[in-house]
């Protein structure tokens, strides 16, 4: 918290009732856990969340992040109202220089197969030797706020698979459970044990970067996998209202009229990248502890990934401890 708010004086309180009684107060809080109405009138609320280039390892494993977002309007996964990211994407005049920077960043990410968490085996899975379209359906943690504030009619992993199968009866559908669920750190979704009845294969310990290279489409509720697929030029069908939907880059199945009315700009992929990876997040270097850039974050993620295999044993031990407290 202090690292990502190093440009401010930070005082910690446990509850909104413990806030100092003076005007001009700014309060940073995680996600949507506390409603705006719980804070004193006139308080500037800064909602914090992980950025989209986060770490090598899961947040649920207590792995320290390289990026956070600090949003004063809302938060990127809450489609019920405007967020700083949506405002950036709707109103920014993206210069040629900024778009070129975004293009170079995107190409570097693809070459390195960097994603949000950078976990999983990169060699295991191979595309089936058929002429079928291959569709990836990424699972989500159904209790997450992104489902509560960003899903459409489809709100469960099983229903997402059913919808994808209904629209694509002849496709080869691959389901990837959320890594937090695979790790035993979060609970399975409702009736998620039935997913094998509606897909052709379930994969788990496969890196998302490797998997995305081999599929044709991604069907998602609000998963960041949809954004990572767009970076790779894949077709994305969005059944909810993620931040990357509604800009002309996705096939939209769940964008509500009030959200569509705010998202009127048609974006290129590099404009989306510029907003989501350059202008919106804050990056803090693991080496210096100072604010940094997405390009430097990419370099540090590559170095981190190379060293991570040496720390895997400790990660497994920590995960077992967390599982005990979870249950």
Write a compact overview of the structure shown.
This protein is an alpha/beta fold.
State the end-to-end CA separation: 27 Å
Shape descriptor reads globular
Secondary-structure class: alpha/beta
Helix content bin: 25-40%
Ranges with pLDDT <50 over ≥5 residues?
none
Largest sheet: 6 strands, parallel
CATH class categorisation of the domain at 118-266: Alpha Beta
Count all strands and give the number: 11
Order of helices and strands: EEEHHEHHEHEHEHEEHHEEHH
CATH topology of the domain at 118-266: Rossmann fold
Radius of gyration: 20 Å
Instruction: Based on the coordinates given, report the CATH architecture of the domain at 118-266.
Output: 3-Layer(aba) Sandwich
Task: Annotate the secondary structure layout.
Layout: E1 26-30, E2 44-50, E3 67-71, H1 84-91, H2 96-112, E4 134-138, H3 145-150, H4 157-167, E5 172-176, H5 179-182, E6 201-202, H6 208-214, E7 217-220, H7 224-231, E8 235-238, E9 251-252, H8 257-262, H9 269-279, E10 281-284, E11 291-292, H10 294-308, H11 312-326
Parallel strand pairs: 1-2, 4-5, 4-7, 5-6, 7-8, 8-9
Antiparallel strand pairs: 2-3, 3-10, 10-11
Helix pairs in contact: 2-9, 2-10
Describe the structure.
With 327 residues, the chain is of the alpha/beta class. It has a domain at 118-266: Rossmann fold. It contains eleven helices and eleven strands. It has helices at 84-91, 96-112, 145-150, 157-167, 179-182, 208-214, 224-231, 257-262, 269-279, 294-308, 312-326, and strands at 26-30, 44-50, 67-71, 134-138, 172-176, 201-202, 217-220, 235-238, 251-252, 281-284, 291-292. α7 (224-231) links the parallel β7 and β8 (235-238).
């Amino acid at each position: 918290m202090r690292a990502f708010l190093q440009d401010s004086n930070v005082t910690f309180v446990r509850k909104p009732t413990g806030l100092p009684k003076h005007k001009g107060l700014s309060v940073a809080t995680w996600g949507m856990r506390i409603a705006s109405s719980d804070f004193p009138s006139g308080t500037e609320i800064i909602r914090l969340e992980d950025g989209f280039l986060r770490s090598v390892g899961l947040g649920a494993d207590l792995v320290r992040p390289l990026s956070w977002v600090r949003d004063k309007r809302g938060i990127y996964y809450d489609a019920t109202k405007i967020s700083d990211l949506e405002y950036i994407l709707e109103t920014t005049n993206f210069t040629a220089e900024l778009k070129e920077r975004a293009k170079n960043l995107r190409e570097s990410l693809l070459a390195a197969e960097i994603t949000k968490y950078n976990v999983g085996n990169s060699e295991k899975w191979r595309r089936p030797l058929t002429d079928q379209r291959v569709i990836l359906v990424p699972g989500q943690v159904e209790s997450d706020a992104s489902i509560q504030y960003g899903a459409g009619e489809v709100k469960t992993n099983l229903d997402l698979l059913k919808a994808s199968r209904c629209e694509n009866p002849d496709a080869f559908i691959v389901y990837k459970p959320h890594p937090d669920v695979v790790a035993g750190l979060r609970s399975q979704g409702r009736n998620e044990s039935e997913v094998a009845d509606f897909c052709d294969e379930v994969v788990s310990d496969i890196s998302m970067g490797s998997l995305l290279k081999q599929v044709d489409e991604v069907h998602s509720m609000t998963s960041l996998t949809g954004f990572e697929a767009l970076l790779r030029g894949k077709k994305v069908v969005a059944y909810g209202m993620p931040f990357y939907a509604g800009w002309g880059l996705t096939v939209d199945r769940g964008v509500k009229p009030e959200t569509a009315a705010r998202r009127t700009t048609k974006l290129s992929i590099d404009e989306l990248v510029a907003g989501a990876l350059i202008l919106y997040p804050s990056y803090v270097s693991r080496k210096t502890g100072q604010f940094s850039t997405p390009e430097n974050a990419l370099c540090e993620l590559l170095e981190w990934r190379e060293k991570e295999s040496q720390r895997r044993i400790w990660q497994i031990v920590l995960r077992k401890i967390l599982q005990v407290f979870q249950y």
